[in-house]
Amino acid sequence: MPKGSPERTNARREEIISACEELYKTKGFKDITIRDIGNITSFTRTSIYNYFQTKEEIFLAILKREYDLWTEELYLRINSQDAMSDEEIADCLAETLDKRQQLLKLLSMNHYDMEDNSRMEALVDFKVSYGRSMQAVMSLLGKFRSDLSVAERQNFVYAFFPFLFGIYPYTVVTDKQKIAMQEAGVEYNYQSVHELIYACVLRLL
Q1: Would 191 disulfide with which of 8, 13, 47, 195, CB 3.0-4.6 Å?
Q2: CA 9, CA 188: separation in Å to the nearest integer?
Q3: Looking at the chain, which runs of residues are DSSP E strands?
Q4: Virtual torsion, Cα 70, 71, 73, 77, nearest 10 deg
Q5: From first to last of its 205 residues, what are the pLDDT tens digits of the chain?
């Protein structure tokens, strides 16, 4: 890590993360290179390695930021309301995640490789944010479904979070994929992120 104030270092890291995130809107993970990221930042390819050792570490940092933003909004919802019905809990989770398409897209990637090709320091930092998001959902249930035991709330989390890994491919479907489904004779009812998450949460509750 280069010398400098923590604020300056964080600002530089954020510039790199934001550049990679912008590229990811139009290019696939495999197509993005460290050089590409350097081309739209104030950094050379070599200087980026002062902050991130691999491309996977940068993507893991994007994922961490997405979890942090989702967690922040969940706590805003929790703290701003005195009561929620099951339908309102489902809508809260569906609506907040519908805003985090980048989170869902990243979750559909090969998560194992992303974590395996990152330093332990970066991985632990990510896991802290991931754990906070799980705790936020636990807090949501704890406040508005106090009839559920801790074990029941944990069971909800352990079913809901793995479910999120499959949301993006089921809701963002290309024309090519739709044609392939038609030619394969597979009937499929395409649903939105909100619809899938809302239905899942109600079933789990």
Answers
A1: 195
A2: 48
A3: none
A4: 130
A5: 555 677 888 888 999 999 999 999 888 888 998 989 988 888 777 888 889 999 999 999 999 999 999 999 999 999 999 999 999 999 999 999 999 999 999 999 878 888 999 999 999 999 999 999 999 999 999 999 999 999 999 999 999 999 999 999 888 888 888 888 888 888 878 889 999 999 999 999 9
First-to-last CA distance in the chain?
45
Amino acid 38 reads G
C-alpha angle 43-114-198 in degrees, rounded to nearest 5? 110
Compute the distance between CA of residue 76 and CA of residue 80 in angstroms, rounded to an integer.
Answer: 6
180: its two tokens: 């392939």
User: Using CA atoms, how far apart are residues 49 and 70, in angstroms rounded to an integer?
Assistant: 28
Contact indicator for 35, 45 with CB cutoff of 8 Å: yes
**How far is residue 128's CA from residue 80's CA, in Å, rounded to a whole number?**
24
- Do the beta carbons of residue 41 and residue 17 sit within 8 Å? no
97-128 as b/e, with b when 16 or more CB fall inside 10 Å?
bbebbbbbbbbebeeeebbebbeeebbebbee
